[in-house]
Design goal:
The protein has 283 residues and is of the alpha/beta class. Helix content is 35%, strand content 16%. It contains ten helices and twelve strands. It has a three-stranded parallel sheet with strand order 1-2-3, covered by helices on one side. A three-stranded antiparallel sheet has the order 4-7-10. Helix 5 packs antiparallel against helix 6, helix 5 packs across helix 8 and helix 7 crosses helix 8. The longest helix has 16 residues. The chain is globular. The protein binds glutamic acid (GLU). The site of glutamic acid has 7 residues, from loops.
């Protein structure tokens, strides 16, 4: 299978040094392997996606010397695929309609137990309030995955990580999924698919063999591998890289305009300067 990597930014703000690192690393690895490098625009959140940010992504990547293969996939063009997957998991008895607001959830988890985390890779761990309530989908604020049922159906499952911090083979454990992730959101009333569902479907649809992305997403990988098993999709190899941090050690955010690639460009930096700043050898 051809080594296929991708970069999947959301067009909700300027690309910064952290994005440059991710994109350059995925691009370098794909080219070194004689493989493909794809660009995807993760524009599911239409309330925040903007055309000018998308254009800026193309400009910045081109300036950095990154070329992508084939056409750009945009998530907003894939809504049918997401819907089909949701129906499939619903027919398998794995999803349910949830009517809770964020405030309801916070109130329900009033006394977190010692040793049990309050937050996981999908935010606050859902206490299961709506799990057995059989709300009609029309009333749902969100569609959730019953993670215990999903684990019972999908395990054993594992994935291979090649990033240096977590390198090796990782097996998913049912208890761990229930306690540290909980019933994840798969779709919201105003969003055809949540990130976790969309990312596995998009990666599979474009034949991605290697997912190269920031370490902050390592914990979410278990959700992705679980969904791949449920939907009969292949599991790629994962490579989570270290995050680029600011001088205070905080990871860069979209609003951190000071480190936007566009800013470095207008200040006269070269693409090789950016490579050096993120610790990549010049080409
Ligand atoms: N759009 C996501 C992000 O920018 C992609 C994450 C991923 O690579 O899976 O964080």
């Amino acid at each position: 299978m051809t080594f296929t990597a991708r970069f999947a930014p959301s067009p909700t703000g300027p690309l910064h040094l952290g994005h440059a690192y991710s994109a350059l690393l995925a691009h370098d690895m794909a080219r070194a392997a004689g493989g493909r490098f794809l660009l995807r625009i993760d524009d599911l959140d239409q309330s925040r996606a903007r055309d000018h940010w998308e254009q800026q992504i193309y400009d910045d990547l081109t300036w950095l010397g990154i070329g992508w293969d084939g056409t750009v996939l945009r998530e907003s063009d894939c809504l049918k695929t997401y819907r089909k997957a949701l129906i499939k998991m619903n027919n398998m008895g794995l999803t349910y309609a949830c009517t809770c607001t964020r405030r309801d959830i916070a109130a329900a988890v009033s006394a977190p137990q010692e040793g049990v985390p309050e937050f996981g890779p999908d935010g606050r761990i859902y206490p299961g309030t709506c799990r057995d309530k059989a709300h009609p989908t029309s009333e749902a604020a969100a569609i959730r995955l019953n993670i215990a049922c999903a684990a019972a159906r999908a395990l054993p499952a594992q994935f291979t990580e090649t990033g240096s911090a977590y390198g090796g083979s990782h097996a998913l454990r049912a208890e761990d999924l229930t306690n540290t992730i909980g019933d994840v959101v798969l779709a919201r009333r105003d969003m055809a698919a949540a990130y976790h569902l969309a990312v596995v479907l998009d990666d599979a649809a474009s034949g991605v063999t290697h997912v190269i992305r920031g370490e902050d997403l390592f914990d979410a990988t278990r959700i992705h591998v679980l969904l791949q098993r449920l939907l009969d999709l292949p599991t790629p190899v994962y490579h989570h890289h270290a995050l680029i941090r600011d001088d205070a050690g905080k990871r860069l955010a979209k609003r951190d305009d000071a480190r936007a690639i566009a800013k470095y460009r207008s200040d006269g930096a070269s693409p090789q300067d950016i490579r050096a700043m993120v610790g990549l050898a010049s080409v």
